[in-house]
Amino acid sequence: MSVVDHNAIELSPRISEAEVADYVALLKPRVMSLVIFTALVGFFIAPIHVHPVLAFTSILCIAAGAGAAGALNMWYESDIDALMSRTANRPIPRGRVTRPEALAFGMTLAFFSVMTLGILVNWFAGALLAFTIFFYVAVYTMALKRWTAQNIVIGGAAGALPPVVAWVAATGSLSIEPILLFLIIFFWTPPHFWALALFRADDYARAGVPMLPVVAGPDATRLQILLYTVVLVAVAFAPWPLGYFDAVYGITSLVLGAAMLALAINVYRHREGGGASRATRKLFAFSILYLFALFATLLAEVVVHALAPSVW
After folding, report:
1. What is the tens place of the pLDDT at every residue in 105-117?
2. Which CATH number fits domain 17-173: 3.40.50.10210, 3.40.50.880, 1.10.357.140, 3.30.1330.10?
Protein backbone atom coordinates (compact mmCIF):
# COMPACT_ATOMS: atom_id res chain seq x y z
CA MET A 1 0.00 0.00 0.00
CA SER A 2 1.43 3.36 -0.96
CA VAL A 3 2.04 5.92 1.77
CA VAL A 4 1.07 9.43 0.78
CA ASP A 5 2.48 12.68 2.16
CA HIS A 6 -0.14 15.21 1.16
CA ASN A 7 1.58 17.83 3.31
CA ALA A 8 4.69 17.92 1.15
CA ILE A 9 5.72 21.50 0.39
CA GLU A 10 7.47 22.57 -2.78
CA LEU A 11 10.90 23.96 -1.93
CA SER A 12 10.65 26.80 -4.39
CA PRO A 13 7.64 28.36 -6.06
CA ARG A 14 7.33 28.05 -9.79
CA ILE A 15 5.27 29.69 -12.45
CA SER A 16 2.42 27.52 -13.59
CA GLU A 17 2.67 26.13 -17.11
CA ALA A 18 -1.04 25.35 -17.22
CA GLU A 19 -3.10 26.14 -20.28
CA VAL A 20 -6.86 26.02 -20.73
CA ALA A 21 -6.60 22.42 -21.97
CA ASP A 22 -4.94 21.39 -18.72
CA TYR A 23 -7.79 22.77 -16.63
CA VAL A 24 -10.30 21.10 -18.96
CA ALA A 25 -8.46 17.81 -18.37
CA LEU A 26 -8.82 18.32 -14.61
CA LEU A 27 -12.59 18.23 -15.10
CA LYS A 28 -12.44 14.63 -16.39
CA PRO A 29 -14.44 15.56 -19.52
CA ARG A 30 -15.28 11.97 -20.47
CA VAL A 31 -16.77 11.30 -17.06
CA MET A 32 -18.45 14.70 -17.15
CA SER A 33 -20.11 13.91 -20.49
CA LEU A 34 -21.73 10.82 -18.97
CA VAL A 35 -22.83 12.84 -15.94
CA ILE A 36 -24.37 15.51 -18.18
CA PHE A 37 -26.22 12.94 -20.27
CA THR A 38 -27.65 10.99 -17.34
CA ALA A 39 -28.61 14.25 -15.64
CA LEU A 40 -30.38 15.40 -18.81
CA VAL A 41 -32.44 12.24 -18.77
CA GLY A 42 -33.27 12.68 -15.10
CA PHE A 43 -34.32 16.26 -15.77
CA PHE A 44 -36.45 15.69 -18.85
CA ILE A 45 -38.36 12.64 -17.66
CA ALA A 46 -39.62 14.74 -14.74
CA PRO A 47 -43.37 15.39 -15.18
CA ILE A 48 -43.09 19.16 -15.04
CA HIS A 49 -42.33 22.00 -17.43
CA VAL A 50 -39.27 24.05 -16.46
CA HIS A 51 -38.19 27.34 -17.98
CA PRO A 52 -35.31 26.72 -20.46
CA VAL A 53 -33.01 29.10 -18.57
CA LEU A 54 -33.50 27.20 -15.32
CA ALA A 55 -33.06 23.90 -17.15
CA PHE A 56 -29.77 25.08 -18.67
CA THR A 57 -28.63 26.46 -15.30
CA SER A 58 -29.39 23.17 -13.56
CA ILE A 59 -27.48 21.04 -16.06
CA LEU A 60 -24.57 23.51 -16.12
CA CYS A 61 -24.31 23.44 -12.32
CA ILE A 62 -24.42 19.63 -12.22
CA ALA A 63 -21.71 19.50 -14.91
CA ALA A 64 -19.57 22.02 -12.99
CA GLY A 65 -20.07 20.03 -9.79
CA ALA A 66 -18.93 16.86 -11.56
CA GLY A 67 -15.89 18.74 -12.89
CA ALA A 68 -15.12 20.01 -9.39
CA ALA A 69 -15.22 16.46 -8.05
CA GLY A 70 -12.90 15.34 -10.84
CA ALA A 71 -10.39 18.13 -10.14
CA LEU A 72 -10.39 17.41 -6.41
CA ASN A 73 -9.97 13.70 -7.14
CA MET A 74 -6.91 14.45 -9.27
CA TRP A 75 -5.56 16.79 -6.57
CA TYR A 76 -5.72 14.06 -3.94
CA GLU A 77 -4.62 11.17 -6.17
CA SER A 78 -1.74 12.86 -7.98
CA ASP A 79 0.76 10.50 -6.34
CA ILE A 80 -0.91 7.32 -7.57
CA ASP A 81 -1.78 8.91 -10.92
CA ALA A 82 1.95 9.32 -11.53
CA LEU A 83 2.47 5.57 -11.01
CA MET A 84 -0.21 4.35 -13.41
CA SER A 85 0.24 4.35 -17.19
CA ARG A 86 -3.47 5.15 -17.68
CA THR A 87 -3.22 8.36 -15.64
CA ALA A 88 0.43 9.40 -15.86
CA ASN A 89 -0.35 12.04 -18.51
CA ARG A 90 -2.85 13.89 -16.35
CA PRO A 91 -1.98 17.57 -15.73
CA ILE A 92 -0.57 17.23 -12.20
CA PRO A 93 1.77 14.24 -12.80
CA ARG A 94 3.01 15.98 -15.97
CA GLY A 95 3.80 19.10 -13.98
CA ARG A 96 1.40 21.27 -15.94
CA VAL A 97 -0.77 22.10 -12.92
CA THR A 98 0.37 22.22 -9.29
CA ARG A 99 -1.57 20.49 -6.54
CA PRO A 100 -2.52 23.80 -4.84
CA GLU A 101 -3.83 25.10 -8.18
CA ALA A 102 -5.93 21.97 -8.70
CA LEU A 103 -7.27 22.23 -5.14
CA ALA A 104 -8.20 25.88 -5.56
CA PHE A 105 -9.79 25.21 -8.95
CA GLY A 106 -11.85 22.29 -7.64
CA MET A 107 -12.99 24.06 -4.49
CA THR A 108 -13.98 27.18 -6.42
CA LEU A 109 -16.00 25.18 -8.92
CA ALA A 110 -17.65 23.19 -6.16
CA PHE A 111 -18.64 26.32 -4.23
CA PHE A 112 -20.09 28.21 -7.17
CA SER A 113 -21.88 25.19 -8.68
CA VAL A 114 -23.64 24.40 -5.40
CA MET A 115 -24.46 28.01 -4.54
CA THR A 116 -25.71 28.82 -8.04
CA LEU A 117 -27.94 25.75 -8.13
CA GLY A 118 -29.26 26.50 -4.66
CA ILE A 119 -29.94 30.21 -5.23
CA LEU A 120 -31.29 30.08 -8.78
CA VAL A 121 -33.07 26.72 -8.78
CA ASN A 122 -33.74 25.25 -5.31
CA TRP A 123 -31.77 24.46 -2.19
CA PHE A 124 -32.78 20.80 -2.10
CA ALA A 125 -30.99 20.30 -5.42
CA GLY A 126 -28.05 22.42 -4.25
CA ALA A 127 -27.67 20.39 -1.06
CA LEU A 128 -27.88 17.12 -2.99
CA LEU A 129 -25.18 18.33 -5.41
CA ALA A 130 -22.99 19.31 -2.45
CA PHE A 131 -23.49 15.84 -0.96
CA THR A 132 -22.60 14.22 -4.30
CA ILE A 133 -19.31 16.14 -4.52
CA PHE A 134 -18.53 15.40 -0.86
CA PHE A 135 -19.30 11.70 -1.29
CA TYR A 136 -17.07 11.37 -4.36
CA VAL A 137 -14.14 13.29 -2.89
CA ALA A 138 -14.23 12.53 0.83
CA VAL A 139 -15.92 9.13 0.98
CA TYR A 140 -14.77 7.48 -2.25
CA THR A 141 -11.45 9.18 -3.08
CA MET A 142 -10.09 9.74 0.43
CA ALA A 143 -11.71 7.06 2.58
CA LEU A 144 -12.45 4.09 0.34
CA LYS A 145 -10.28 3.88 -2.75
CA ARG A 146 -6.98 3.13 -1.01
CA TRP A 147 -8.38 0.97 1.79
CA THR A 148 -11.01 -1.47 0.52
CA ALA A 149 -11.70 -3.59 -2.53
CA GLN A 150 -15.33 -2.50 -2.24
CA ASN A 151 -14.30 1.06 -3.13
CA ILE A 152 -16.05 1.15 -6.47
CA VAL A 153 -19.23 -0.49 -5.14
CA ILE A 154 -19.84 2.03 -2.36
CA GLY A 155 -18.25 4.94 -4.20
CA GLY A 156 -20.40 4.24 -7.24
CA ALA A 157 -23.27 5.96 -5.45
CA ALA A 158 -21.69 9.33 -6.28
CA GLY A 159 -21.74 8.61 -10.00
CA ALA A 160 -25.34 7.43 -9.76
CA LEU A 161 -26.67 10.63 -8.16
CA PRO A 162 -26.63 13.16 -11.08
CA PRO A 163 -30.03 12.14 -12.52
CA VAL A 164 -31.46 12.36 -9.00
CA VAL A 165 -30.02 15.86 -8.56
CA ALA A 166 -31.49 16.84 -11.94
CA TRP A 167 -34.95 15.49 -11.05
CA VAL A 168 -34.87 17.39 -7.76
CA ALA A 169 -33.78 20.54 -9.62
CA ALA A 170 -36.80 20.16 -11.91
CA THR A 171 -39.42 19.21 -9.32
CA GLY A 172 -38.09 20.21 -5.91
CA SER A 173 -38.89 16.73 -4.61
CA LEU A 174 -37.94 13.06 -4.89
CA SER A 175 -39.85 10.25 -6.60
CA ILE A 176 -39.41 6.61 -7.57
CA GLU A 177 -38.30 7.36 -11.17
CA PRO A 178 -34.97 9.04 -10.30
CA ILE A 179 -34.34 6.36 -7.68
CA LEU A 180 -34.72 3.74 -10.41
CA LEU A 181 -32.18 5.62 -12.54
CA PHE A 182 -29.88 5.77 -9.53
CA LEU A 183 -30.12 2.00 -9.03
CA ILE A 184 -29.39 1.30 -12.70
CA ILE A 185 -26.17 3.35 -12.63
CA PHE A 186 -25.25 2.02 -9.17
CA PHE A 187 -25.37 -1.63 -10.28
CA TRP A 188 -23.81 -0.79 -13.66
CA THR A 189 -20.71 0.71 -12.05
CA PRO A 190 -19.04 -2.44 -10.58
CA PRO A 191 -19.04 -4.57 -13.76
CA HIS A 192 -17.98 -1.54 -15.81
CA PHE A 193 -15.02 -0.58 -13.61
CA TRP A 194 -14.01 -4.11 -12.63
CA ALA A 195 -13.73 -4.94 -16.32
CA LEU A 196 -11.31 -2.02 -16.61
CA ALA A 197 -9.51 -3.13 -13.46
CA LEU A 198 -8.99 -6.64 -14.86
CA PHE A 199 -6.87 -5.46 -17.78
CA ARG A 200 -5.29 -2.66 -15.72
CA ALA A 201 -4.56 -4.81 -12.66
CA ASP A 202 -0.78 -4.28 -12.92
CA ASP A 203 -1.32 -0.52 -12.87
CA TYR A 204 -3.42 -0.69 -9.73
CA ALA A 205 -1.01 -3.09 -8.02
CA ARG A 206 1.93 -0.78 -8.79
CA ALA A 207 0.07 2.15 -7.28
CA GLY A 208 -1.05 0.19 -4.23
CA VAL A 209 -4.76 0.60 -4.96
CA PRO A 210 -6.73 -2.40 -3.61
CA MET A 211 -9.00 -2.93 -6.58
CA LEU A 212 -10.79 -6.27 -6.53
CA PRO A 213 -8.51 -8.06 -9.08
CA VAL A 214 -5.46 -7.06 -7.01
CA VAL A 215 -6.92 -8.13 -3.65
CA ALA A 216 -9.16 -11.09 -4.51
CA GLY A 217 -7.67 -12.16 -7.83
CA PRO A 218 -9.05 -12.17 -11.39
CA ASP A 219 -11.27 -15.24 -11.01
CA ALA A 220 -13.15 -13.80 -8.03
CA THR A 221 -13.50 -10.54 -9.96
CA ARG A 222 -14.98 -12.33 -12.96
CA LEU A 223 -17.55 -13.98 -10.71
CA GLN A 224 -18.48 -10.64 -9.14
CA ILE A 225 -18.81 -9.05 -12.58
CA LEU A 226 -21.22 -11.80 -13.61
CA LEU A 227 -23.29 -11.55 -10.41
CA TYR A 228 -23.57 -7.76 -10.59
CA THR A 229 -24.49 -7.96 -14.27
CA VAL A 230 -27.36 -10.33 -13.48
CA VAL A 231 -28.64 -7.87 -10.86
CA LEU A 232 -28.13 -4.94 -13.25
CA VAL A 233 -30.17 -6.57 -16.01
CA ALA A 234 -33.02 -7.29 -13.59
CA VAL A 235 -32.96 -3.80 -12.07
CA ALA A 236 -32.83 -2.13 -15.49
CA PHE A 237 -35.79 -4.19 -16.75
CA ALA A 238 -37.96 -3.73 -13.65
CA PRO A 239 -39.28 -0.19 -14.41
CA TRP A 240 -41.30 -1.50 -17.36
CA PRO A 241 -43.41 -4.17 -15.59
CA LEU A 242 -43.70 -1.81 -12.62
CA GLY A 243 -45.33 0.70 -14.95
CA TYR A 244 -42.83 3.55 -14.66
CA PHE A 245 -41.31 3.38 -18.17
CA ASP A 246 -42.85 2.37 -21.50
CA ALA A 247 -42.63 -0.81 -23.57
CA VAL A 248 -39.98 0.60 -25.92
CA TYR A 249 -37.71 1.06 -22.92
CA GLY A 250 -38.55 -2.40 -21.60
CA ILE A 251 -37.76 -4.16 -24.88
CA THR A 252 -34.57 -2.13 -25.34
CA SER A 253 -33.56 -3.04 -21.80
CA LEU A 254 -34.07 -6.73 -22.53
CA VAL A 255 -32.01 -6.64 -25.73
CA LEU A 256 -29.18 -4.63 -24.21
CA GLY A 257 -29.29 -6.69 -21.03
CA ALA A 258 -29.00 -9.94 -22.97
CA ALA A 259 -25.92 -8.63 -24.75
CA MET A 260 -24.38 -7.34 -21.52
CA LEU A 261 -25.01 -10.66 -19.78
CA ALA A 262 -23.55 -12.64 -22.70
CA LEU A 263 -20.36 -10.56 -22.53
CA ALA A 264 -20.16 -11.00 -18.74
CA ILE A 265 -20.50 -14.78 -19.18
CA ASN A 266 -17.75 -14.61 -21.78
CA VAL A 267 -15.50 -12.80 -19.31
CA TYR A 268 -16.28 -15.45 -16.68
CA ARG A 269 -15.45 -18.32 -19.06
CA HIS A 270 -12.25 -16.94 -20.61
CA ARG A 271 -9.64 -16.74 -17.89
CA GLU A 272 -6.26 -16.93 -19.59
CA GLY A 273 -4.37 -15.50 -22.54
CA GLY A 274 -5.49 -13.12 -25.24
CA GLY A 275 -9.05 -14.43 -25.18
CA ALA A 276 -9.48 -13.28 -21.59
CA SER A 277 -8.14 -9.83 -22.37
CA ARG A 278 -10.36 -9.43 -25.44
CA ALA A 279 -13.43 -10.56 -23.52
CA THR A 280 -12.77 -8.06 -20.74
CA ARG A 281 -12.15 -5.17 -23.12
CA LYS A 282 -15.31 -5.97 -25.07
CA LEU A 283 -17.37 -5.91 -21.88
CA PHE A 284 -15.84 -2.62 -20.79
CA ALA A 285 -16.52 -0.98 -24.15
CA PHE A 286 -20.05 -2.35 -24.44
CA SER A 287 -20.94 -1.33 -20.89
CA ILE A 288 -20.57 2.33 -21.93
CA LEU A 289 -22.82 1.76 -24.94
CA TYR A 290 -25.28 -0.13 -22.73
CA LEU A 291 -25.81 2.75 -20.31
CA PHE A 292 -25.90 5.36 -23.07
CA ALA A 293 -28.44 3.44 -25.15
CA LEU A 294 -30.64 2.68 -22.15
CA PHE A 295 -30.82 6.33 -21.10
CA ALA A 296 -31.08 7.54 -24.70
CA THR A 297 -34.20 5.39 -25.07
CA LEU A 298 -35.80 7.17 -22.12
CA LEU A 299 -34.88 10.54 -23.60
CA ALA A 300 -36.30 9.54 -26.99
CA GLU A 301 -39.56 8.49 -25.36
CA VAL A 302 -39.85 11.93 -23.75
CA VAL A 303 -39.30 13.61 -27.13
CA VAL A 304 -41.86 11.39 -28.87
CA HIS A 305 -44.41 12.00 -26.11
CA ALA A 306 -43.91 15.74 -26.48
CA LEU A 307 -44.14 15.76 -30.28
CA ALA A 308 -46.96 13.26 -30.75
CA PRO A 309 -48.84 12.81 -27.47
CA SER A 310 -51.93 11.48 -29.24
CA VAL A 311 -49.98 8.45 -30.47
CA TRP A 312 -49.42 7.42 -26.85
Report:
1. 999 999 999 999 9
2. 1.10.357.140
